[in-house]
Amino acid sequence: MRLRTRRKTLVIAAAIGAVLALLLALILALFAVGNLAGDSDVLVDDSDPTPDDPPLVQHLKKFQALADEYGDRSARGPGYEAAAEYVEEQLAAAGYDTERQYFTFERRGEEYETFNVIAETDGGSEDSVVMLGAHLDGVRGSAAMNDNASGVSALLEAAKAVQAQGEPTNTVRFVWWGAEEYRNSPGSRHYVEDLAENDPDELDAIAAYLNFDMIASPNYVIAVYDARSGEDEARLEVPDGSVEVMDMFTDYFDSQDQPWVGTGWDFDSDQVAFAHEGVAVGGLYSGSDERKTPREAALFGGTPGKNRDPNYHTDDDDIENINMEALTIMSDAITHAATTLARDATALE
Ligand SMILES: [Zn+2]
């Protein structure tokens, strides 16, 4: 009897143990799913675009579909031309004339030709030009959605909003850059060097350049190019007026009760060529392969210790790598900046 009872007790204990283990596993699994959902608000899938999709989602779905068809949006492949045609169609529908600026760049001894897509407002002072840009090309073999279909799509919406506002006080010029993913961002460098050499007055007329490269990272931060950092820290001298660009974004975020952080702005992207010529620069950024800090997780949610974009420059940077919450916050800020500066650029003085 004693032995039997003991065995029975053991069996019951084992059963209770198994149930507890199952429950624990279930709780852990739920926690893991919750965590995943928490650091990536995936609101888009790769289904076909519908008229009910918000415009940003329609753009993203189009760029994903083009990547599915052509493989990527590399400056060296046919996907770039197809993506540029889509951007040009969107701009034409909004009432813009667009222009292609062709240039060549080198890669391992080979020369390639590609182009920037440029559109600007009619009317508005030619002596006061505000420029906003995002690179249209992507790394090879990737749909390149966060880097940088995100910036491309937000810039399209900003251009539409500026046009809808009517005749501007200042000229607003939008550029979708080619070949940013190659050393020294040859698209923007060509644009700036060409003006410096052939039309310095037009270069002087540029009040500021605002850059948008990666603004929908899955484990995002809302970061503003930090022009306050001392010249000792930055590899580049901070051009006059850059702090004013930064203030415009941070004042806007403050007015929306939106937390933000500063970020180094001297990385290789399309603002560098402008900064070299002393043009005020600014921009927004949601993160790439830097790890999210606990402080950033407290401010923006997501997962501390994990990369802000775990799929940076990989073929997993597809439409499911887009955080729509981040993209919406950033897109609204870009539209705010563009429409405000179209009316009044005194904030930059
Ligand atoms: Zn990029």
Structural classification: alpha/beta
Under the CATH scheme, the architecture of the largest domain is 3-Layer(aba) Sandwich
Side-by-side strand order of the widest sheet: 1-2-4-3-5-8-6-7
Basic shape: globular
- Tell me the helix content: 40-55%
Low-confidence stretches: 1-5, 30-40
Average pLDDT, rounded to a whole number, is 89
Amino- and carboxy-terminal Cα gap: 94 Å
Distinct ligands, ions and cofactors found in the model: zinc ion
CATH class of the largest domain: Alpha Beta
- In total, the number of strands is 8
Write down the Rg.
24 Å
Major β-sheet profile: 8 strands, mixed
Secondary structure layout:
Elements lengths: L1 H38 L15 H16 L7 H16 L4 E10 L2 E11 L4 E11 L9 H20 L5 E8 L8 H13 L1 H5 L1 E7 L10 E3 L16 H14 L5 E3 L7 H6 L4 E5 L8 H7 L23 H20 L6
Parallel strand pairs: 3-4, 3-5, 5-8, 6-7
Antiparallel strand pairs: 1-2, 2-4, 6-8
Helix pairs in contact: 2-3, 2-4, 4-10, 7-10
The structure holds zinc ion.
